[in-house]
Amino acid sequence: MFTLLQDVTAAVDMTAAEAIVTVSHANSAIGAGLAVVGAGIGIGLIGHGAGLGIARQPEAVSDIKSNAIVLAALVEGATFFAIVVALLFAIK
After folding, report:
1. What are the CB-based long-range contacts (under 8 Å, 24+) for 12-15?
2. 19 lies in a domain?
3. CA distance 56 to 52
4. What's the Cα-to-Cα distance from 61 to each of 18, 22, 51, 52, 67, rounded to whole Å?
5. Which of 8, 24, 28, 62 is a Cys-bridge partner for 86, taking CB atoms 3.0 to 4.6 Å apart?
6. Within a domain: residue 3?
7. Could you give the CA distance from residue 83 to residue 43 in angstroms, rounded to a whole number?
8. How far apart are CA 23 and CA 18, in angstroms?
9. Which residues lie below 8 Å from residue 89, measured CB to CB, with a gap of 6+?
10. pLDDT tens-digit readout, 58-90
11. Which domain holds residue 50?
12. Residues 87, 32: contact at Cβ < 8 Å?
C-alpha cells in the first residue's frame, strides 16, 4: 500500500510516456480481474445447472457430472487465455 501511495505522489513528476505505461498496466490488471470474475460466474452457473439436473434425474448423475466437469474446464481454458492476453498487454 505504501508503494501505491508513493506511486501516486510521484505521478506528478511523470512524463506522458510513463503515465501511459502506468495506465496500461492498470487496465491489464482490471482486464485480468474481470476475466476471473466472469469465470467464477460461469462455473457457478454450471454448478447450479448441474445441481438442478441431478435433482430432477438422480439416475443421470454420472453423465451430468462429467458434462459439468468438461464445461468447467472449457471456461477455465478461456479464462487462462484472457489472463495471458492481459499480461501480454501489461508487458508490452
Report:
1. none
2. no
3. 6
4. 55, 49, 9, 11, 10
5. 28
6. no
7. 17
8. 9
9. 24, 27, 28, 31
10. 999 999 999 999 999 999 999 999 999 988 888
11. 36-92
12. yes
Residue whose C-alpha is closest to residue 86's, from 23, 22, 38, 31: 31
Show the DSSP H helices in the chain as ranges. Answer: 2-10, 16-56, 61-91
Query: From CA 30, how far away is CA 23, in angstroms rounded?
Result: 10
Whether 30 is in a domain gets the answer no
- Amino acid identity, position 80: F
* Dihedral sign (CA 58, 60, 65, 68): negative
1 domain residue, yes or no = no
- Alpha-carbon torsion (28, 34, 36, 39), positive or negative: negative
Q: Which residue reads 482486464 in cell numbers?
A: 31
Asked if residues 65 and 50 have their Cβ atoms less than 8 Å apart, the reply is yes
Question: How many structural domains are present in the chain?
Answer: 1
